[in-house]
Amino acid sequence: MDFVLNDEHKMVQKMVRDFAQKEAAPLIKEYDRKREFPMQLLPRMAELGLLGVCIPVKYGGAGMDYISLGIVSEGLEWADSSARETIAVHTGLNSLTIFQWGTEAQKQRYLAPQARGEKIACFGLTESGAGSDVGAMTSHARRQGDGYVLNGEKMWITLADVADNFLVFAKTEPGEGNRGISAFIVERGFPGVTTGTIHGKMGVHASNTGWISLNDVFVPAENLLGQEGEGFKIAMSALDSGRYTVAAGAVGLMRACLEEAVGYAQERETFGKPIGQHQLVQQLIARMVQRIELAELYVYKVGWLKNQGSRNTRETSLAKWYTTEAAWATASDAVQVLGAYGYSDEYNVERHLRNVKGSVIYEGTSQIHELMQGAYALGYRRDKPLRCELPAYDPEVWQAEE
Ligand code: CAA
């Protein structure tokens, strides 16, 4: 057992922390207030290799491992959830899923430009009436000639109005529930695709959340990801990657809350001494530390499992559930430490509190994860081997040019 980051991990950590501190954080407050996505961060994230961090070099990525993906997610969410959300959907839910299930042609055409950051990608699973219950989706795909015609509407899609490529799920067998779903790679330029932004969110104002409308969109057969009817498994495996980035990001958000709370508690005085010297404030701080340390250990255990190529659906679900709830409590405690200042956007903790509620809801609500954990423990749920597993990390393969 080794609890130490290697030199490559430390290098990624330093790079992402520098980027978060010097480039992302200074922009975020303004963009959060304007409720706009800071597009200028994308080329810089691409330049630093963050958008394809754990994708092999031969597919345009940086050739790092899955622990590095966690480090990037943690570092970005220290600045703001919106920055980490970009990684969650572009890298976690979309690119890694094409890496796992795609044909060589799909990897060359879609994965490589996405990993290089030349194209931005998102994940179209949820609908207005189908969130936790994926099989309730009504989007459908009808076979026509050498392709499929897609119709439907996706909702609550991160980066909907920003992305070039969409991984979209639709029913090819409408009567078959989960088993009737297929996955398609759709380009923004395909006739019949329109997108829009959803306004009025509680948090992550500097991220883009929207809808995708598919109106008689012809998708060539070569853009079917996996086989017909495999869409539900593909979506669930995508969530194994996405939920990991959410969990790692929650650690970064908690760190940001702790730092701000500690700094404030050391400065602010009441009753003749810094509030950090009051025991009830110390208790709030101590509980933050406890949550962060436990969350971090578990998140990086999941990253390690991914590196081994071990199936980690149970562990990823547990990590996502625990860390996001811990981050919700931590952000709330941080606001409490800062009192009225914490309630104002002069500081960052109120933004983190609003943002983290999204993490508790998307990529599987806490209730879905509790149900999964109960079912695993009782033996009602078991993970079966897949036709295509996410490959174990092998530095020689990941860093090879060809
Ligand atoms: N990887 C691959 N295959 C998987 C899998 C995984 N992680 N999990 C399940 N499967 C397979 C199973 O092995 C099973 O295969 P067989 O048919 O061969 O037996 C099949 O899929 C069905 O599995 P289950 O019986 O476990 O499916 P279920 O109906 O019990 O799943 C559920 C229920 C756990 C609630 C699941 O539907 C779920 O996780 N729902 C939440 C959906 C979700 O997280 N949505 C988030 C939307 S994305 C988003 O928020 C992104 C954004 O932009 C913000």
Topology summary:
Layout: H1 7-34, H2 41-47, H3 66-79, H4 81-101, H5 104-116, E1 121-124, E2 140-144, E3 147-158, E4 165-171, E5 181-187, E6 193-197, E7 209-220, E8 224-225, H6 231-267, E9 269-270, E10 273-274, H7 279-308, H8 313-338, H9 349-361, H10 366-378, H11 395-399
Parallel strand pairs: 1-4
Antiparallel strand pairs: 2-3, 3-7, 4-5, 5-8, 6-7, 9-10
Helix pairs in contact: 1-3, 3-4, 3-6, 3-7, 4-5, 4-6, 6-7, 6-8, 6-9, 7-8, 8-9, 8-10
Bound molecules: acetoacetyl-coenzyme A (CAA).
Acetoacetyl-coenzyme A binds at residues 89, 123, 125-126, 132, 134, 157-158, 178, 232-233, 236-237, 239-240, 313, 362-364, 368, 372, 384, 386.
Spatial ordering of strands, largest sheet: 1-4-5-8
Class by helix and strand content? alpha+beta
What proportion of the residues is helical, as a percent range? 40-55%
Q: Please tell me the overall pLDDT.
A: 97
The CATH level-2 architecture of the largest domain is identified as Up-down Bundle
Key terms:
402 residues, alpha+beta, Butyryl-Coa Dehydrogenase, subunit A, domain 1, Butyryl-CoA Dehydrogenase, subunit A, domain 2, Butyryl-CoA Dehydrogenase, subunit A, domain 3, 3 domains, 4-stranded mixed sheet, 4-stranded antiparallel sheet, 51% helix, 14% strand, binds acetoacetyl-coenzyme A
